[in-house]
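Hallway conversation turned thread

IA: we were arguing at lunch whether anyone had actually written out Similar to Saccharomyces cerevisiae YNL181W Putative oxidoreductase end to end. Turns out nobody had. So, for the record, here is the sequence (408 residues) and right after it the structure tokens. Reply here if something looks off.
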Amino acid sequence: MPLNILGTALLEGTDKIPYYNGIKKVAPYVAATAAVKYWSRGPSNTWERQLHGKVYLVTGATSQGMGTSVALEMAKLGAQLIFLTRSVDEWSTDWVEDMRDATGNELLYMEQCDIADLYQVRQFATRWLNNSPPRRLDGIIVMSGDMEPIGIPHFSKPVRQSSVDGLEKQMAVNFAGVFHLMDLLQPSIKAQPPDRDVRIIISTCWTQVMGDVNIEDPLWQSQKYKSALKFFSSSKLQLGLTMMELQRRLTEDVKKVSKEKQDTERSGLNIKVVMVQPGTMRSNSLRRVVSNGSIILLLVLYCVILYPFLWLLTKSGNRGAQNILYALNTPEFEEVNLKDTNAKYVSDCSVVKFARKEFEDVELQKQLFDNTRRDILELEKKMAIARNTKKKAEEKTKKETDKKSKKK
């Protein structure tokens, strides 16, 4: 077909091509739209390695967006995946079965661990660490996240959502829960043999450049809730800073143990922490923000009015997943290719520099890490007391009810 059109244009002139004038008018707009879309979709991951026999913990896999795309590709490559989810129910069980059928990989499992619940995070980490010898762990892929509606100026104010521990929900999901999981799993990560390439990949967001760092109150427990966006961006920024410190501690601890045991093989550089900025995607979070949590606005504003522009300027979940897959597969993070020991930042399938100056402040990162660990421990103790008090009250009520029923 194209050859016939080109032949006609060359031999008989463009006037002989049907609808040529209309095509000539529309073509520049189509070309411009295609160019913008090609730019906004971002680059593709070109690296691939076999993951047979490798074991990964994955959060955010059931999002039906980026997380699901990453999980699907990893399963196809043969990885054993343990998906952490808020609840193991009929839907999540069916989801795993469908994933097994689609990939032919039976080594896919689901475990309950609500990242927003510090107690559940500790329970999961305890179960994981209680194995002897230590369980194999080739990496942790964190793609879970929460972004609350920011409110419509002059019409509605952002409503503070709280986790079971009383933390602001975004701070709990995006920062406290992920930090707690990484901190508790340090023994498992450091126990991996030196020839095992361990990658801790954590998704972040470009909005972290608008965040604040609260060193004295890292969980933002005493901060007034004026802006949902401020809590979201700050949670991402603080997570990135503490992960920089996590990289240092993992490397230094492995080196220290290696020196004590006179084991020159262990440098700690086989463990790499990578922050990944996948870009702006048409995700559940974006839909929630654009619609302000309203079904009517979702149908009218997002699906009808804005969707053509969003399709043009934002990525699909699969395109965002390319950055996670790049961080997982690229040989740049293998020990032999590393040029320094710092945590890495990936955007558009390439290693880039962090934008904020705080990422160069080692002392700030160390203090933020220590204070976050301190506040989480204090909050855990407080919630443990509350659970015990509630349990005793329920037992007392049950005894009184039993006594009354016996009298009758």
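OS: looked through it. The chain has a mean pLDDT of 89.
IA: good, adding that to the notes. Strands lie at 55-59, 80-85, 108-112, 139-142, 198-203, 271-277, 344-347, 350-352.
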